[in-house]
Design brief:
The chain is α+β, with helices and mostly antiparallel strands. The protein is built from 18 helices and 19 strands. It has 5 domains: 99 residues, GIY-YIG endonuclease (3-Layer(aba) Sandwich), CATH 3.40.1440.10; 129 residues, no CATH class; 110 residues, Nucleotidyltransferase, domain 5, CATH 3.30.420; 158 residues, Nucleotidyltransferase, domain 5, CATH 3.30.420; 52 residues, DNA polymerase, domain 1 (Orthogonal Bundle). The strands form 4 sheets. Strands 12, 13, 14, 15, 16, 17, 18 and 19 form an 8-stranded mixed sheet that branches. The protein has a 5-stranded mixed sheet with strand order 9-8-7-10-11.
């Protein structure tokens, strides 16, 4: 059992590594965030990158420190979110870390919100940094990507606009007055018009009118440099950098602190990908993508998805943002512009009682475009992964044919036997077509004629039963038969095929090593080893086939053992025959429920109190 668990773990690890290799090849040359996941699907690390392709690949190449090595050893999958700038990636990284608390992230696990700059609504207003927005008639600007940037901007504004700095007015002027950063309302009268002027200029600056201030700072910096006042020039230069850092436009956070669901979609080759960006309290915290085939008109099918989504997810945000419908076709040319969008938004609003918008410009339009861009990337990734997998599988099948001296190997039928000490022997067959599993063709076999753990005779019986039916029903013959084992299994299969059925189908065997892993390929009678490289695509295909048929056989064997154990428990009770056993199982559903039943529960089956008590006592005694 431990050996089987180890093998399954190794298989899952190999599949995860292959999946990561495929996805690494498809990473875009764009900024964004990436989320590393462990084997349970839990997010263990969130990071950001200017170029996703370079940053994510770096985890799987080269040497790392101890922490990164531990992180990489746990990664079994990853996903990413594309953004339009590195600043967006920074803010999104912060939101995602606060949402998921990944174990390998440390710096941003606090529960702080983004900082804002506030102009207070007082007789003598002042500037302050805050992380809370309240309805106090103050003016809030932001949010800003980090507290340092907000502080730098406030310091700059303090130099340019000398509002008061004290929480309560002192009795006399303080140092700020003497260095020109306060107009000292504590000692000198200040006209309201002066306050209005400064508040208006600060508002214009923080709302995007900082170019005038930057031009003035640039002029002063150049004058200071010409006058050889290098310290002053450096200070002015740093102020210019601070302005650029904090005033960069970003879409990841909105100042109104609303809960929003933002939808975008993309279509290609009959498939649609819908991306939903979840914005909570004005912050983008999560992304979800769904890919599915669509059959009608793309926007109608997209709206059907949205409708079904909210039918299944009753928790509604305050606002829903949707992309606008594509240009109307000829049949709709007489409709007024925008009528379709108005109809959609009105219908959804009426049904959901939630504000629904299709923004045309501004930040809301930008986040809808971001959702659409992520949908396009996800859909492209899906098709490129499929194409790479199909190309490799087909090429592996073609190359395998060359190794075996065959014209082609398109259909492979593989067999595996399963039993434990000869009990409940079964066999299973899987089919691979062009290197891909064809699950509707899988077959299960209960071994009928073989007593005890005889693998060769089991192989004979199953091969005989399978290909007698193929001949009788004129089914498609395989290009290659694969058996689990070496010379003995190959000889048994060929003997039945050629001498009993007159079929000449190539048979090869997959031999395992001491660790129960696929080790080599054997073919022919007398069997010879085919020198396939263990890191080749052909060997990987055979390994997948062997793992799949083994999994299928083991699953079937467990089912049969479970049924056998149930039957043996009930059959050992006096007064229970096959008919009554089936009746009990049909009525109660399982042995566990029979054991938990009361005597009265047996009356509908015409089982008396005495026998019912014996059944319950026997089952409970066996499990104690």
């Amino acid at each position: 059992m431990e050996e089987l668990d180890q093998r399954q773990a190794e298989k899952r690890l190999a599949e995860a590594k292959e999946n990561i290799r495929n996805k690494l090849a498809l990473l875009p040359d764009q900024p964004g965030c990436y989320l590393m996941k462990n084997g349970d699907g839990a997010i263990i690390y969130v990071g950001k990158a200017k170029v996703l392709k370079n940053r994510v690949r770096s985890y799987f190449n080269g040497s790392h420190n101890g922490k990164t090595q531990r992180l990489v050893s746990e990664i079994r999958d990853f996903e990413f979110i594309v953004t339009s700038s590195n600043m967006e990636a920074l803010i999104l990284e912060c939101n995602l870390i606060k949402q998921h608390h990944p174990r390998y992230n440390v710096l941003l696990k606090d529960d702080k919100s983004f900082p804002y700059i506030k102009i207070t609504n007082e007789k003598h207003p002042k500037l302050e940094i805050t992380r809370r927005i309240v309805k106090d008639k103050g003016k809030y600007f932001g949010p800003y990507p980090n507290a340092f940037a907000a502080q730098q901007t406030k310091k700059l504004l303090d130099r340019l606009y000398p509002l008061r700095k004290c929480k309560t007015l002192p009795d006399k002027v303080c140092l700020y007055y003497h260095i020109g950063q306060c107009i000292a309302p504590c000692e000198y009268p200040v006209e309201q018009a002066e306050y209005d002027r400064m508040v208006q200029e600060i508002t214009r600056f923080l709302n995007g009118g900082q170019d005038v201030v930057k031009a003035e700072l640039q002029r002063k910096m150049e004058e200071a440099a010409e006058a050889l006042e290098f310290e002053r020039a450096k200070e002015l230069r740093d102020q210019l950098v601070a302005i650029d850092e904090v005033m960069e436009k970003q879409k990841i956070t909105m100042s109104d602190a609303l809960d929003r669901d933002i939808f975008g979609y993309a279509v290609d080759k009959g498939w649609m990908c819908v991306q939903i960006l979840y914005m909570r309290k004005g912050k983008l915290i999560e992304r979800r993508g769904t890919t599915f085939p669509y059959y009608g008109e793309e926007y109608d099918d997209f709206m059907t998805f949205v409708t079904q989504y909210y039918s299944d997810n009753p928790a509604l945000p305050k606002q829903i943002l949707l992309p606008t419908p594509p240009e109307q076709n000829t049949a709709e040319a007489d409709e007024p512009a925008g009528s379709r969008a108005d109809e959609v938004t009105a219908s959804l609003h009426s049904w959901l009682k939630v504000k629904v918008h299709m923004p045309q410009r501004g930040r809301k339009s930008e986040v809808v475009s971001m959702a659409t861009d992520n949908a396009k990337v996800m859909l492209e990734e899906k098709f490129r992964l499929i194409e790479r997998d199909e190309e490799r599988s087909v090429k592996a099948s073609e190359s395998l044919a060359g190794w075996l001296g065959l014209e082609e190997v398109r259909r492979i039928e593989a067999f595996d036997n399963s039993n434990i000490q000869g009990t409940n022997p079964v066999s299973a067959m899987v089919v691979f077509t062009d290197g891909k599993p064809d699950r509707k063709e899988y077959r299960k076999y209960k071994v009928k004629t073989v007593q005890g753990p005889d693998d060769y005779e089991t192989m004979r019986e199953v091969i005989r039963r399978r290909y007698e039916r193929v001949l009788k029903e004129n089914l498609q013959l395989p290009d290659l038969i694969v058996v689990d084992g070496g010379k003995g299994q190959i000889s048994a299969a060929l003997d039945v095929l050629e001498n009993e059925l007159g079929l000449f189908i190539p048979v090869c065997g997959l031999v395992k090593d001491a660790k129960h892993k696929t080790a080599q390929l054997m073919t022919g009678d007398p069997a010879e080893i085919v020198p396939l490289s263990r890191d080749s695509q052909e060997f990987y295909l055979l390994q997948r086939i062997q793992d799949e048929v083994h999994r299928f056989a083991i699953t079937f064997h467990r089912e049969q053992r479970g049924k056998s154990m149930v039957e043996s428990k009930l059959d050992s009770i006096p007064g229970i025959g096959e008919k009554r056993r089936k009746l009990l199982l049909k009525h109660f559903g399982s042995v566990k429920k029979i054991k938990e039943a009361s005597v009265e529960d047996f009356r509908p089956l015409s089982i008396g109190e005495k026998l019912a008590s014996q059944i319950i006592a026997a089952l409970r005694e066996e499990s104690s």
